[in-house]
Amino acid sequence: MTGGWHWLLQRLFDRCKEGDDPRQVLHEIADEMSQPGSTMCELFREALGIHPDTTPLVWEVLRFLHIMGKTRSDDITPDLLDTNVATTPELFTNALEYLKILGVLNISHEDQYELLTVEALASRMLFES
Fold first, then answer.
1. What values do phi and psi take at 93, rounded to 5?
2. What is the rounded CA–CA span in Å between residue 93 and residue 87?
């Protein structure tokens, strides 16, 4: 796990006391995460490490996938990005691989194609709050 996921798990462990039912703590965290302006949301976004100012190409690739929804990875090319961020095919491929490693993309397969979607919580935290 990378990105903000380890941070989120650590919050769960930090809040669970010996003998606590983690399901109750998970519900509390979920409630906090459902409030767009909450401190928990802000800290999770920061922990994800994806921001238009610091990782502009990664941000633009993720934003594209968020807008497009389920997309075949073969169909995603740098020329489809509606951005002024400079890129090369190699940098674009690296940005896409980085997003996969961070765990913010759901990867599925249909026939011989790899399909990508932005993970629901990451999508909500980064684009809808």
1. -60, -40
2. 10
Work out the percent of the chain whose per-residue pLDDT is above 70.
97
Q: What's the pTM?
A: 0.82
Q: What domains does the chain contain, in order, with CATH numbers? A: 5-48 (no CATH), 56-127 (1.10.10.10)
Q: Cα–Cα distance between 122 and 63 in angstroms, integer?
A: 11
Q: Are 74 and 85 in contact (CB under 8 A)?
A: no
Calpha distance 107→128 (Å, rounded): 21
Cα separation values, 58 from 7, 50, 53, 109, Å: 20, 7, 10, 22
